[in-house]
Amino acid sequence: KAGVTQTPRYLIKTRGQQVTLSCSPISGHRSVSWYQQTPGQGLQFLFEYFSETQRNKGNFPGRFSGRQFSNSRSEMNVSTLELGDSALYLCASSLTLDRVTGELFFGEGSRLTVL
Amino acid sequence: QQQVKQSPQSLIVQKGGISIINCAYENTAFDYFPWYQQFPGKGPALLIAIRPDVSEKKEGRFTISFNKSAKQFSLHIMDSQPGDSATYFCAASSYYGSSNTGKLIFGQGTTLQVKP
After folding, report:
1. Which residues contact residue B64 at a Cβ distance below 8 angstroms, ignoring those fewer than 6 apart?
2. B39: Cβ–Cβ under 8 A, 6 or more apart, which residues?
3. What contacts A89, CB < 8 A, 6 or more positions away?
4. In this complex, do B99 and A33 lie within 8 Å of one another by their Cβ atoms?
């Protein structure tokens, strides 16, 4: 079956702009998580959604937001972009919130460059 | 207390050798410890995982050793192959202690190079 699909794969923005990233989970998966990956900070949790409800949020400023639709697809938005937002944004889906019973499947990410 | 510390940052091993990556955690509420493998241009993929009720788990050439009292766990890759060259991340999660969430706390990653 198809894996987690993230679009766009690459994008370049300038400071002050906003960006929306999209994630289509594996069919049947109701949980979607977002992570930011940078060389300096590694993989950091952004937020997690289950059945259209945000279940947890990481320590990121309010400029980072997300949502999940009824078909489990998810989007994340970053407003007023800063240079430090340049990163690989990874989406992951799973059947359940419990990691023991719900393996996380990651997409290939959206590479954001802020100039 | 939410941190997971991983070492070494990079590792070079000869083909056929053993690769060992270590992680340490503080939060005793963590109850699930996975290892992820990431190749360039790809997202991380689950390699192997362990729960604190066992001290070791083996899957093929990959073994997790878990020391609950020391709050440490490690990944051993036996008979390392050039195809194992990738970045490895340890992680930890606490489901019931975190308001029903599957948030993973990742280590900083280890870049493994296996020389032919």
Report:
1. B33, B35, B48, B49, B50, B56, B57, B58, B73, B74, B75, B76
2. B86, B87
3. A6, A21, A34, A35, A36, A37, A46, A76, A109, A110, A111, A112
4. no
For chain A, list residues whose CB is within 8 angstroms of any CB belonging to chain B: 4, 31, 33, 35, 42-45, 48, 55-56, 58, 90, 92, 94, 96-100, 102-109
**Mean per-residue pLDDT of chain B:** 92
Residue-wise pLDDT for B95-115, tens only, equals 765 555 678 999 999 999 999
Using CB atoms, which residue from A92, A100, A109 is nearest to B32? A100
Percent of chain B predicted with pLDDT > 90: 81
Task: Report CA Rg, chain A.
Answer: 13
Render pLDDT for A46-81 as a digit per residue (tens, 0 to 9): 999 999 999 989 999 999 999 999 999 999 999 999
The H-assigned helical ranges of A9-57 are: none
Query: pLDDT at position B44, please?
Result: 96
**Closest B-chain CA to A31:** B102
Q: What is the pLDDT of residue B99?
A: 57
Q: Do the chains contact at A42 and B41, CB–CB below 8 Å?
A: no
B18 min Cα distance to partner chain A (Å):
25
Q: Under 8 Å CB-to-CB from A29, ≥6 apart: which residues? A: A72, A93, A94, A95, A105
Residue B103 to residue A90, Cβ atoms within 8 A: no
The strand pairing partners of B24, in sequence order, are: B5, B72
